[in-house]
């Protein structure tokens, strides 16, 4: 599978497994899983044929590790980022003292007024490093990186979870827990 098809397939799988499973006629279970054979048959019916080997390639080569197979390899789900209601079953985890959020500069005024909100997704996504935050913010315009005082949030009772691909998740982040790291926009 060439790189262009791999990226296109990854984007299509993200849409199906995170936001619109009905677009190909599948239903996610309560934890976001769908059987691989059911997904592949549905994709074929919707003129998006994909072999198991191609699916394996997309999962294995995705640099963001967006997808995960069940332990038995029979089911697949998105690691996080859902706008449809699922419970990934992630345990509350003590976060590192500081986490980061990448956004676009043009959103900063609203964020410092309202905080970080999940918008159409179930959770706010945070990263453990500034490099990832810069890449995320770059998708939406000129990037800005915000520092999240995760230690203070945890001490105040906010819950954090970490997805299989290392993305930190929380319900929201109030403005008082946000700042801009020195040297980063």
Task: Describe the structure in your own words.
The structure is a single chain. This protein has 185 residues and is an alpha+beta fold. It has two domains: 3-78, RNA 2'-phosphotransferase, Tpt1/KptA family, N-terminal domain (Arc Repressor Mutant, subunit A, Orthogonal Bundle), CATH 1.10.10.970; 98-179, Alpha-Beta Barrel (ADP-ribosylation fold), CATH 3.20.170.30. Helices cover 32% and strands 18% of the residues. It has helices spanning 3-19, 36-45, 52-61, 108-114, 130-138, 150-155, and strands at 34-35, 67-69, 75-78, 98-104, 124-126, 143-149, 161-162, 168-170, 178-179. The strands form three sheets. The chain has a three-stranded antiparallel sheet. The protein has a three-stranded antiparallel sheet with strand order 4-6-9. The radius of gyration is 18 Å and the shape is globular. The mean pLDDT is 93. Its EC number is 2.7.1.-. Keywords: NAD, Transferase. It is an enzyme of class 2 (transferase). InterPro entries: Ptrans_KptA/Tpt1, RNA_2'-PTrans_C, RNA_2'-PTrans_KptA, RNA_2'-PTrans_N.
Cα shape: globular
CATH architecture term of the largest domain:
Alpha-Beta Barrel
Helical content (DSSP H or I, runs of 4+): 25-40%
End-to-end distance? 37 Å
Radius of gyration: 18 Å
How confident overall, as mean pLDDT? Answer: 93
CATH top level of the largest domain? Alpha Beta
Low-confidence stretches: none
Keywords: NAD, Transferase
Function: Removes the 2'-phosphate from RNA via an intermediate in which the phosphate is ADP-ribosylated by NAD followed by a presumed transesterification to release the RNA and generate ADP-ribose 1''-2''-cyclic phosphate (APPR>P). May function as an ADP-ribosylase.
GO biological process, one term: tRNA splicing, via endonucleolytic cleavage and ligation
InterPro entries: Ptrans_KptA/Tpt1, RNA_2'-PTrans_C, RNA_2'-PTrans_KptA, RNA_2'-PTrans_N
